């Protein structure tokens, strides 16, 4: 994939809140987005791991149906998409601290097909204003003939959209406090 293709791909993505590119280099990048949700860490954890198919954006699945996603929250578990015989392992779970941290490894979306590798973390912590601060952190890198820093804003927009889906799902389940996004 060459840079003009990346630019076209970026233009097709919907805009999301909370830019969070922490760093980017030709061989990789780090993204971090955070949002406060009106729920306890245990409630946010439940939404994150047990209802991924209800908050993950369907247009960021291989076959357009978020309900085909599962997330097995145990070491060696799979963040997978299964649509009959069509199947994808998006990421592998490598660290679980319920109510606090979920860490997965692998390449998401087109990064997987490019042979790139990353670490995705969901971090949950008490928010000063009440509720829970949910942080989505992703670091990806590897060999590519292209400058990977060009991917950082694109991946950031997608990650912000994914976090927004989780926030909206939690807000719907636990109304009463508006979540606030930030980075």
In short:
The chain has 183 residues and is an alpha+beta fold.
Structure overview:
The chain is of the alpha+beta class and 183 residues long. The chain has one domain (16-176): START domain (Alpha-D-Glucose-1,6-Bisphosphate, Chain A, domain 4). Helices cover 27% and strands 35% of the residues. The protein has helices at residues 3-12, 41-50, 52-55, 110-113, 152-173, and strands at residues 21-25, 28-37, 69-71, 78-83, 86-97, 101-106, 117-126, 132-141, 181-182. A hairpin with a 5-residue loop joins strand 7 (117-126) and strand 8. The longest helix has 22 residues, at 152-173. The radius of gyration is 16 Å and the shape is globular. Residues 1-19 have low confidence and may be disordered.
CATH superfamily: START domain
CATH topology assignment: Alpha-D-Glucose-1,6-Bisphosphate, Chain A, domain 4
Pattern of helices and strands: HEEHHEEEEHEEHE
Task: Please work out how many helical segments DSSP would assign.
Answer: 5
* Poorly predicted spans: 1-19
The SS-based structural class is alpha+beta
Mean pLDDT: 88
Q: How much is the radius of gyration in Å? A: 16 Å
The rough form would be described as globular
Count of discrete structural domains: 1
How far is it from the N-terminal to the C-terminal residue, by CA? 29 Å
What is the CATH top level name? Alpha Beta
**What percentage of residues falls in helices of 4 or more residues?**
25-40%
């Amino acid at each position: 994939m060459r840079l003009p293709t990346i630019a076209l791909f970026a233009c097709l993505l919907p805009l999301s809140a909370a830019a969070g590119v922490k760093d980017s280099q030709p061989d990789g990048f780090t993204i971090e987005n955070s949002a406060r949700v009106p729920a306890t860490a245990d409630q946010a954890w439940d939404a994150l791991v047990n209802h991924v198919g209800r908050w993950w954006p369907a247009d960021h699945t291989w076959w357009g149906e978020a309900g085909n996603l599962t997330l097995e929250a145990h070491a060696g578990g799979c963040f997978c998409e299964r649509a009959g015989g069509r199947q994808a392992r998006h990421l592998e779970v490598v660290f679980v601290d319920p109510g606090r941290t979920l860490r997965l490894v692998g390449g998401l979306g087109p990064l997987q097909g490019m042979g790139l590798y990353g670490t995705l973390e969901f971090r949950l912590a008490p928010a000063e204003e009440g509720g829970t601060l949910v942080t989505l952190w992703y670091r990806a890198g590897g060999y590519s003939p292209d400058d990977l820093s060009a991917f950082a804003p694109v991946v950031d927009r997608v990650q912000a959209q994914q976090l927004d889906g989780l926030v909206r799902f939690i807000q719907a389940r636990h109304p009463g406090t508006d979540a606030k996004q930030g980075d």
